Every structure is written in C-alpha cells, then in structure tokens.
Amino acid sequence: MIPQSFIQDLLNRVDIVDVVGKYVQLKKGGANFMGLCPFHNEKSPSFTVSPTKQFYHCFGCSAHGSAIGFLMEYSGQSYPDAVRELAQSVGLSVPEERDRLPPAQRAAEQARSVALSDAMTRATDFYKKQLRGAQTAVQYLKGRGLTGEIAAHFGLGYAPDDWQGLEAVFGSFRDDAIAAPLVESGLLIESADKRDADGKPRRYDRFRDRIMFPIRNTKGAVIGFGGRVIGQGEPKYLNSPETPLFSKGTELYGLFEARHAIREAGYVLVVEGYMDVVALAQLGFANAVATLGTACTTVHVQKLLRQTDAVVFSFDGDAAGRRAARRALEACLPHVADNKTIRFLFLPAEHDPDSYVREQGTDAFAAQVRDAMPLSRFLLQVATEEQDLRQPEGRARAQFEAKPMLQAMPAGGLRLQIVRELADATGTTPAEIEAVCGLGSDASRVGRYAAPRPRARRQAPTALEQRVVQLLMTYPSLAARLDADSRALLLDSERPESEVLAHLVGACEAIEGQANFAAFSEQLAQSPYAEVYAAARAAVLREDIEEDLATLEFDGAVHKLLAEPLRRELEALQTAVIAGTASESDKTRLRWLVSEVQQRRQVGYRAPQEGD
C-alpha cells in the first residue's frame, strides 16, 4: 500500500508536460500544451496537457488523468508500477513494505538491476548487428514474408553459431564480474560439472544459430529473448529462463509494439507464437501478442484488459489447441465483466493465423475474428460437451463441470445469463443451478434470485452542489471561506445530498492547499465518491477560471445553497400556520425565518473576514 501522502509529494515534484512529452509531440498553445491524442486516431490535436493543473485531457475521446494515469493508460502499467517509474525519474524511493531494507542492501539491489538491464540492451544490439551479415537467417525471414522494416520494428536479431559469441561484446566469460550478470540474465549457461583448467565453471552462450526475438516489458526495455531455430533442431523455440527481469507467466510478447494498434483496432488478438505476432503485423494485424511458451495466466489477462475491453484468443482447432483454450478460459474467468468482451477463435487444424491469412486473405481472417466464439458459449460448450443431456447423469455431470467455472466468475449480468442458459440446457431453474453450484451463499449474488444488499441512503449532488464541488476541486483553499454557521447548514449529516460536500470540504482542509490539482484528484479518486469526483474533474478540465472569479462564484453558489433549506422550512411553516396546526414554537421559528431569509436576500452571503 503506497501512502497518499507520498503520491501527493510525487505529483508535486514531477511535471506532467515532461512525462507526456516523452511519448507525445507537444506544442505550446496558450497556457497549455497540445498534441495528437495517443489513445485514439485523430488528424487535428484535441489532446491538451495543463502544466498548472498537472493533468491531461482529450476533448475527442475524453481520456484524462494525472502523470500516473497517463503511464497506466499509455503503457498498460499497474498503478504501483507507474508510481515506481515516476518516483525513479525524480529520485524518490517508494515507501513500501519491501523497501524497508538497509540503504546498503537497497543500493546493491538497484546496482544489480541496472547491470542486468544493461546486459540485455547490449546483447540486443549485438544480435541485431549479427542479423545483417547472416544470409541464412535473412533468407529465412524473407521466406516467411517479412520485410526489413517489420524486422527492425520488432528488433529481430541473430545469435551466431558460436559457443562464446557474446565475448565480442562483454569480454572474457572467465572474468566472474563480467559473467555474473550474463548468467543471471539468462544469456549464458554456467556448467555445474564442467570446469576449465583453472577450476572455473565452463560458461557458454545460451542462444546459438537462432533468430532472436527480443521480449520487452511495458516500458519497452528488453527483459528476455525467444530464439527460433532456423533449420531442423530441438527445441524449435528456446526462451530465456526465469530471471529477476523476466517471468513467462507475467509477460506477453509484442505487447509493447502492439499497444497503439490495439487501441486503433479496439481489441487485442492473442496467438501462440512469436512468428505469428510478427507475421500478422506484416499482414495488417499489428494488434497481436503471444504468450511465451506457457499457458495463459490471470496476470496475462489483467495486462490485456488494461489495454482494451475486448480480447480474442486464437488457437489451433486440434486437441492441443482446445486444451490451451480451456486453460485460457480458466485464466479469464476471475476477470470477466459485463463491459468486457472475451472471445475464442478456433482455426482449422491445418492452419495457424499466419498461414490462414496468406491462404485465405486478410478479409477472411477478419471475418473469423468477428465470428469468434463468445466466452459464455465456450464455457457452456466445455461444460456440456460429451455429456448426454437426455439422461439425468449427463445433466448432473454438466452442472458438475460448470460449478468451478461459475464459482470463479464474479457476480454480474454475464454470470446470471450463463446460469440461465445452463438451467435451460439441464432442465432445471436458475435458482437450482445457483444452489447446486454454491452461488447462493455468496453475498454478492445478483439478479432476481438474490436478496438485495442493503445500501446506505445516498443521493447525487444537485447541479448547484456539483458546481461547488468543481470549484473546490479547482481551488481547495475556498473551503476556508465557510464559517461555522454555514457548515452546520451546508454539511448537515441529515441531508444525504451533503455527503459529497462534507467529504470534499474535509479533504480540502486536510491538504491545507499544499497539493496540486493532479495530486488532489488522485486522492479523491480513492474515496467512496470517486464517480462524482470523476464527473466533476472532467468539467474542471474543460474550463480555466481565475481564482478571483471562482471565489465570487463560490460565494454566490454557497449563498443559494444555504438559502434553499431555509426557504423550504419557511414554506412548510407557513402552510402549517394557514392550516392551524402550528405551535407557538413554530410561529417563533417562522418569524425568525422570515427575517433571516429577507436579510440573506438583501446582503447575500458574507464570507468570513480576518479576525472573525
């Protein structure tokens, strides 16, 4: 858990113009900077970066956020990773549990990480240079239909058929200081039982005579390699081992290169091999990525759904492809949502995506993608296939197969629809399916089969209250203009609509005007009223209001808000007097209200003055 105080300090130190400017070409336009939005296609710039608010906003697609949000949206990083990258850029250390190490140990670990990253970068450059003179490798790639441009885009290289090829870059492998980061990064293999004459373990290149596919993380740094044999040989693909930089279960090949195409296409295509990714990019499907010789994991799915709301998995139609699809289905289930689309494409057994596009054409493959099987249908197919649904045993077995999959899904509309279809297929009711599958004990059940969860009474802010929220978010210091009487009326806990204002005023006072707009917005985004604040933030980003004008508008809006409950009470008491039901205390209160409302109309809202 990263403290909010650290987030505020971090966003006060970074300049969002510098952060965004690394990825987007920005030009000064008035008080802000403008550029082409990186999150959707546009020909004229509608993407603005505000150095005063430290926020970006696109008037075309409504994307907006702080420097942290930009890194998450642009690179697909998680919140902690984006915070760490920003912190590193300004020399801060993120205060997390794992960072509570002695300074010397922390420095040693950082130096080790830098050494590993440097080794991967230098090896990448070496392999790329070797490819230029390796005619056999070049002819192989040309034979697969690849151009030099696409090879350069993915940074393809060639590992020469040499046991000590990397010595040309790093120096002798007999030097322990040189060899250590190369062994740890997976570039070298260190033999445990074979030693040189001086007793040192024998060290040699892991990758030899292979096409090299650099694997990048979401920042674009090379963290591992996949090597494909050119002729005959085993294994066909050789991957980097697990290292401090690289974990097969969390990384996806081609995700860094595909991030823009994914946004343009509106979906990501997950295939099974490196060459499929590169070849598809050559053929017009640059939104493809691949798992790294391992089954799809839940972490893979999380990364993909950060990039897009639509994922299409492509598998061979044979038994191995069906098994891989089943594992992908299981990885997806915890992350399904009613606003996400996950589909499964099964090509004929004789084809992979590359061969299918070359034989049938891009239009035919695009049609296959559009017609891919929805997750719901695949789940039901997995549960019911090979079951004789005419017999009680077959129907019971289908429910048994579906049970762990349904339990893995979060409650929501999609799970409800699958439950209904399974009930129809097995001759039962949705309520019985929920009981058999153990869904009824979950307090988060939805639909008419579940009892509604009790909710605290909450009412959306009125238009006037929304405006006060916007002004306070822009200038938190305005909260100090509320005197005790105003607070008692405006932030009355008996008025459900005052919840947001009460929370916001407290937040404004807590920061004491020290946080900038971006830092303050990040803090509010973690609150129970995040949706209200998000809507207000979008409105704030569309205007530039000077503090003097904001102060006048704030005073007037508060005046109206304070007068409204008094006016309603006055009308109610006047009605009671006319009806003859008012008590003496009611009449006394009525006389005070008449005087108070009249006075407020005459003098308006009085802001507290110095010395009050």
From TrEMBL:
Catalytic activity: ssDNA + n NTP = ssDNA/pppN(pN)n-1 hybrid + (n-1) diphosphate
Molecular functions per Gene Ontology: nucleotidyltransferase activity
UniProt keyword annotation of DNA-binding present: yes
Segments forming domain Toprim: 266-348
EC number: 2.7.7.101
The keyword Transferase belongs to this UniProt entry's keyword annotation: yes
Start and end residues, zinc fingers (CHC2-type): 37-61
Record InterPro entries: DNA_helicase_N/primase_C, DNA_primase_core_N_sf, DNA_primase_DnaB-bd, DNA_primase_DnaG, DNA_primase_DnaG_DnaB-bd_dom, DNA_primase_Znf_CHC2, DnaG_bac, DNAG_N
Cofactor note: Binds 1 zinc ion per monomer.
Keywords: DNA replication, DNA-binding, DNA-directed RNA polymerase, Magnesium, Metal-binding, Nucleotidyltransferase, Primosome, Transcription, Transferase, Zinc, Zinc-finger
Matching CDD domains: TOPRIM_DnaG_primases
Superkingdom in the source lineage: Bacteria
Pfam families: DnaB_bind, DnaG_DnaB_bind, DNAG_N, Toprim_2, Zn_ribbon_DnaG
Assembly and oligomerization: Monomer. Interacts with DnaB.
Entry's family note: Belongs to the DnaG primase family.
Domain notes: Contains an N-terminal zinc-binding domain, a central core domain that contains the primase activity, and a C-terminal DnaB-binding domain.
Entries under NCBIfam families matching the protein: dnaG
Purpose: RNA polymerase that catalyzes the synthesis of short RNA molecules used as primers for DNA polymerase during DNA replication.
Name of the protein this chain belongs to: DNA primase
UniProt source species: Cupriavidus pampae
Gene for this chain: dnaG_1
